[in-house]
Specification:
By secondary structure, this protein is of the alpha+beta class. Helices cover about 35% and strands about 25% of the residues.
């Protein structure tokens, strides 16, 4: 959990990083100008309204820089566009759906990580037994593996005349995914 599994470069993050650099530069310039205008206003050389206007511009530039920094933070990206994908769970990488240099879309998982300590089994329960199956009920597989039903389909498959059921296995270390 939390271990890096891939590094990618995002053109969008590069653009946001560049905008962050520009916004920080604007914030520095407008902040210095606001300080100078405030000093001049205190000395009576310029109208206080000009100093207030300079302060507002400095605040606006600071807000813009903070917004760009938050955008990078949300995507966990660096200002050079680098994003490190980290495993959300403990386990092992079972499949990689992307190739180096290829683009990612928002609908495809770049990889599948199988949980080391959790496994689920999907099964079809015949219509005649469907009413007896309840979420939370225990199961026993061939070989002695135990588990609990975590989900039960609401409708009957018209072809197989069965309902889908999913169970979570307890301590399934001797099983192989897809078995």
């Amino acid at each position: 959990r939390g271990q890096p599994v891939a590094i990618m470069i995002s053109p969008d993050a590069v653009r946001v990083g560049a905008e962050l650099a520009r916004a920080r530069a604007r914030a520095a310039v407008t902040g210095a100008n606001a300080a100078r205008q405030s000093q001049l206003a205190r000395e009576g050389i310029i109208a206080a309204a000009r100093a207030d206007e300079a302060q507002a511009m400095a605040r606006e530039a600071s807000v813009s820089a903070n917004e760009q920094a938050r955008l990078l933070a949300i995507g966990q990206a660096s200002s050079n566009g680098r994003i490190t994908l980290r495993s959300p769970i403990s386990g092992r990488v079972a499949a990689i759906a992307v190739q180096p240099g290829s683009a990612l879309d928002g609908m495809t998982a770049p990889m599948i990580i199988e949980a080391a300590d959790r496994m689920e089994v999907e099964m079809q329960v015949p219509e005649r037994l469907a009413a007896a199956v309840r979420v939370g009920q225990g199961i026993l597989l061939q070989g002695g593996q135990r588990g609990r039903i975590i989900g039960k389909g609401a409708s009957l498959d018209p072809v197989s005349r069965s309902i889908p059921v999913r169970a979570s296995l307890l301590g399934a270390r001797d099983l192989v995914p897809g078995q």
